[in-house]
Amino acid sequence: MALTGKQKAAMLLTTLDPQTAAELLKGSPAENIQEIAMELAQLDASGQRDKKNEAKVIKEFYNSLQKNQNQAFSIKGFLNEMLVSIIGKEKTEQIQEQIRKVTGKKDLFASIRSASTDELVLALEGEHPQTVAVVLSELAPNKSQEVLSHLNDETRLKAVCKMTNMERIRSGVKERIAFMVSERLKSFKGETLAQKPEQVLRKLAIILSGLENDLRNRLLDEINKFDEESCKMVKILMITWEDIPTIADRSLQEALRKVDAKKLAVALYGAEEELIQKIRANISERLAVMLDEESSLMQEPLQKEILDAREEIVRPLREANEEGTLRRAQRK
Predict the structure, then answer these.
(1) Domain ranges, residue 137
(2) Which CATH number goes with the domain that contains 151?
(3) For the segment 194-225, what is each residue's pLDDT rounded down to a tens digit?
(4) Exposed, middle or buried by CB within 10 Å (0-12, 13-18, 19+), for 125?
(5) Which of 85, 107, 129 is the last residue before a domain boundary?
């Protein structure tokens, strides 16, 4: 569809600083300024700016593309500063109130998109899978993925299935869902999800790992009397794959001495660079050559294969920790 004059003006203004935009609009009727402000607000509400159309508009007005556009441009800040400098603060507030009403009607999911992952998870708890599916379909892919990962298995499965048939959901249903979820979000504003049990036990494990062996073992014995499973988990969480950079070189060398090159290649797949360098610095030249060879021939491993390989490498470190022989690297 061809762009209207107001849409072109709004696009052009987004490429300018507020002062320059204000100069261009001085003398324009208040009605025109308000309509352009509405177009700017719609650009902001949609979260999308069509770079191709912007370029065409700029070329049309300036006969050349404007370079070095500000990628961190804030339409809201720009709009506010521009309007205040032209028509004053009071009139600006009136226009912005009208903008909020208009954009709120046109983009019912604006407040949902701006909510945090934790707030969304709390608001969607116990909701029908169709409601969850509609909300997820309106979020950015990475945010939708984050929310999905926190839902229970049954809701997650049903919601994903519903997302395959979104075209069947009527607009009226979407509007009701948007309103209902937006209202629920108000009661969860600023709230965060409770920590998972393993997060709490990991903190406990880190605390205990810094104690003297005798005291640590006595405390573990006490925990074991009340909850054997939690005690076992705490022992496991004292040393994890992510802790490898904190292990002293000598202890790490002893643990890696009998590691299979193929298993090590799988374990290092997709690992953090700091961790990779720590391990490479503590293996023999012969093992390093074999590791490079295995890495070059290896197909992309499954996630379970990676986790199993890492667990095998960490196991001797845990055993050394329980025996009290594991050394930690000196903090700098």
Answers:
(1) 111-187
(2) 1.10.220.30
(3) 666 777 888 888 888 878 888 888 888 998 89
(4) middle
(5) 107
Counting runs of H as helices and runs of E as strands, what totals does the chain give? 20, 0
Q: Measured between alpha carbons, how far is 212 from 106 in angstroms, rounded to an integer?
A: 62
Q: Specify the pTM.
A: 0.47
- At 36 the three-state DSSP class reads helix
Residues 281 and 325 grouped into a single domain: yes
SS3 246: helix
The count of domains in the chain is 4
Whole-Å CA distances, 200 to 40, 195, 207, 222, 234: 46, 7, 11, 17, 10
In a domain, 215, yes or no: yes
Residue 103 sits in the same domain as residue 11? yes
3-state class of 247 per DSSP?
Answer: strand
R_g over Cα of the chain:
29
Of 237, 318, 301, 316, nearest in space to 263 by CA: 301
